[in-house]
Design brief:
The protein has 120 residues and is an alpha/beta fold. Helices cover 45% and strands 36% of the residues. The chain has 4 helices and 5 strands. It has a 5-stranded mixed β-sheet with strand order 1-2-3-4-5, sandwiched between helices.
Length: 120
């Protein structure tokens, strides 16, 4: 399940459970629209009780990340699992943008960080 809110070039995404292709069909057009309109976005991505991706959703995610990585100025991942921290560290090698990981208890700090110097 995915919940998405936007404000200008800010995208706030909260996921729960397992992401599937339908979630990506909802999310990716919105992200593409925002990057086209603003050229760059700042993205808050929170994972609550995250169970991973279906194979189709994972493929959509990989294809999107590889083609659109340069279009985000900041990305913050919020979650409570150690693998999310490791995933964030690995992403830094492939994505040339500011990227940080926050614990779920630090969600308000994460929103503040991703929003800094950001309004258009």
């Amino acid at each position: 399940m995915i919940n998405i809110e936007t404000k200008g070039n800010k995208i706030y995404t909260i996921t729960a459970g397992k992401l599937d292709k339908v979630d990506y069909e909802k999310m990716l057009p919105l992200v593409k629209e925002k990057t086209k309109k603003y050229n760059a976005i700042h993205w808050y991505f929170q994972m609550k009780d995250f169970k991973g991706w279906t194979a189709n959703a994972f493929w959509c995610d990989m294809n999107f990340d590889l083609g659109n990585a340069a279009k985000s100025n900041k990305l913050v991942i919020v979650g409570d699992k150690k693998w999310q921290v490791r995933m964030t560290e690995i992403m830094k090698f492939f994505i040339r943008k500011e990227i940080r990981c926050f614990d779920e208890a630090e969600g308000s700090n994460a929103k503040e960080w991703v929003s800094t110097n950001f309004d258009v």
